[in-house]
Amino acid sequence: MGLLYLALRLRCPHCASGPVFDRARQRTNCPECGYRFERESGYFLGAMVVSNAVIGVVALIVMLVLIFTGRSPLVAVGLPILTALVAMPLFLPFSRTIWMALDLRFDPPNDDDFGNAGAGTSRPAGSG
């Protein structure tokens, strides 16, 4: 099963079955295989880059469509900003799982990347 497909389903990129999030909170470990989601300090900075890039492209497309359909400059600039502000928190869980999937693809896990299965404690998705 493709890693990006698993990321879009918000599943563990290692075992494909454990959920990464418990409601709005990100788990620290996969409850199925024990894979530690945050592999090092500052790990999710790359997820922010993924999120900003995707949201930036979406906002740019919205702005260009509005400009070329003859909307006022205020609407052509304001609506993409509003779109970005609404989309960022909604896309953050997906950008984190996409980042984990890409990282796992290029840097396979070692023994240090696993904790206890079933010990997937949660913390707010925006923290850490």
Question: Explain this structure to me?
Answer:
The chain has one domain (3-108, 115-124). 50% of the residues lie in helices and 6% in strands. The chain has 3 helices and 3 strands. It has a 3-stranded antiparallel sheet with strand order 1-2-3, with no helix packed on it. Helix 2 packs antiparallel against helix 3.
Describe how the helices and strands are arranged.
Blueprint: H1 3-8, E1 21-22, E2 25-27, H2 45-68, H3 73-106, E3 122-124
Antiparallel strand pairs: 1-2, 2-3
Summarize the structure.
With 128 residues, the protein is mainly alpha-helical.
What is the element string, with H for helices and E for strands?
HEEHHE
Average the pLDDT over all residues and give the rounded result.
85
Q: What's the arrangement of strands in the largest beta sheet? A: 1-2-3
The percent of residues in helical segments reads 40-55%
Q: In one word, what is the shape?
A: elongated
Distance between the termini: 29 Å
Number of domains: 1
Largest sheet, in brief, is: 3 strands, antiparallel
What is the number of helices? 3
User: Which residues sit in consecutive blocks of at least 5 with pLDDT less than 50?
Assistant: none
β-sheet strand percentage? 5-15%
